[in-house]
Specification:
Blueprint: H1 13-30, H2 36-39, H3 58-72
């Protein structure tokens, strides 16, 4: 990628410079060879939950409320 000096955003050359820079980056991204060990979809580690329902915030709302209540009562002692 060629490093050209960035024109000021007010100048008419800025739009062309921005377009050229975006084209260079897109060419670099789409023309790069993917290493063979990364190209195999069935191998590797998946980062994230295994089930879609684990992402749903509705599932954790009750748990979050319970945790908040427990934190608020944390300084209190249980007297029997």
């Amino acid at each position: 990628m060629t490093k050209s000096k960035r024109p000021s955003p007010d100048s008419p050359e800025f739009e062309q410079w921005l377009l050229d820079r975006a084209k260079e980056r897109a060419d670099k991204l789409f023309n790069t060879e993917i290493p063979a060990d990364l190209a195999d979809v069935d191998s590797g580690i998946i980062a994230g939950p295994l089930d879609w329902e684990d992402l749903m915030p509705e599932k954790t709302i009750a748990e979050d409320i319970a945790i908040d209540k427990a934190h608020k009562r944390k300084h209190l002692k249980t007297v029997k």
